[in-house]
Write a structure and sequence with these properties.
Elements (H helix, E strand, L loop, with lengths): L1 E5 L4 H12 L3 E6 L2 H7 L5 E4 H11 L5 E4 L12 H25 L5 E4 L24 H9 L1
Length: 149
């Protein structure tokens, strides 16, 4: 299978990429820094810059079997100033929108589109057991997760 992973250089993406390559899948990683992706990510892949995705979408997406969306600026990379909160939001919403649009338009062969959010959707609810029916939290991260989903 040929799989596109956004966020393939992050913690989850790196581990997932290693597993997928070990199972024989061919990977395309979309990254803000494709050169760094090729140097630092411990699995073979084609690296593509987000800014080039539109130009390649018509050819790339029909060849894909799956899209896995893990993209987003690092939650724990630095303090959440108002400007960094905008980066956190935009890096998730813009990338997801772009991938969904290209998948709809060109991804006729896609077998799966997987997009992550986070357990942060529920916010801090103390010791309460949570499940899919639990209410969304009200803090910044919970609201971000809700927008992203």
């Amino acid at each position: 299978m040929k799989i596109l992973i956004s966020g393939g250089t992050g913690l989850v993406g790196t581990e997932l990429g290693k597993c997928l390559v070990a199972k024989g899948h061919q990977l395309v990683v979309v990254s803000r820094n494709p050169e760094q992706s090729l140097l630092s990510t411990p699995f073979p892949h084609q690296a593509l810059d987000w800014s080039d995705l539109d130009a390649h979408a018509e050819v790339l997406f029909p060849s894909l079997d799956a899209v896995i969306n893990l993209a987003g600026a690092g939650i724990a990379d630095r303090a959440w100033s108002p400007s960094y909160k905008k980066i956190l939001v935009n890096s998730r919403l813009d990338s997801t929108h772009q991938l969904v649009e290209h998948s709809r338009k060109y991804g006729k062969n896609l077998k799966a589109f997987i997009s992550t959010s986070a357990v942060g959707f529920y916010g801090d609810q103390g010791e309460q057991w949570l499940n899919e029916d639990s209410p969304q939290g009200t803090d910044f991260l919970a609201q971000l997760c809700g927008q992203w989903e």
